Amino acid sequence: MTIREELFLLAENDYRRFQQKLLPDHCELIGVRLPILRKIAKRIVKEDYPLFLSQGPEDYFEEKMLKGMVIGYLDPEKAGLDTIIASINTFIPKIDNWSVCDSFCSGLKHARAYPELFWGFVLSKLKSSDAFTLRFGIVMLLFYYIDEAYIHQTIELLDAVRHEDYYVKMAVAWALSMCYVRFPDITLSYLLGETALDIFTYNKTLQKIIESRQVSPEEKARIRLMKKRN
């Protein structure tokens, strides 16, 4: 049985219809839940992941998710970091929606284990003009570089992003809101200063901070007053 045949056997029509409402129209879905995909991905890693990554189909949303998950589950000591980074590089151009992008980034725990090694790699993606390559770089900052060592550099990099794509702007807003959650004083000082953010991204950042359950009502009231008008 092929992986695609297995996925269709595991599909749920109701779940597929639900997912379709959340994703762009061009995404072809089978309707397999993420926990099941993760289970299959772990099995593939134990079997023949090089063949799957190089030849496995990727016409469907779930097939792309599977490839991203497999890369995330690779053991650096067995596969080698060079192989993992090469696999990431090969996969990035295939990202065509926010869900695959963000799920892929969240699974790349190698960046947490080797932050300095991945830092330069992430910076290279932030220079891309491709929307989802750029979103990849932004979301990697969000997941792995909002900490004591990198917070100032991360905010500076987010402030420097220039792209008109909606999903890029929303990624910047999301990342900056997480900067605020973890480093409120540093991020507030930045937001009150001369940022280079366009009004849409700035206000979306405030909105996401206000929506956070980790921000107090008093802080939210202050953030609301910072909204910019066109």
From TrEMBL:
UniProt-listed InterPro entries: ARM-type_fold (IPR016024), DNA_alkylation (IPR014825)
Pfam families cross-referenced by the UniProt entry: DNA_alkylation
Highest rank taxon of the organism: Bacteria
Protein name: DNA alkylation repair protein
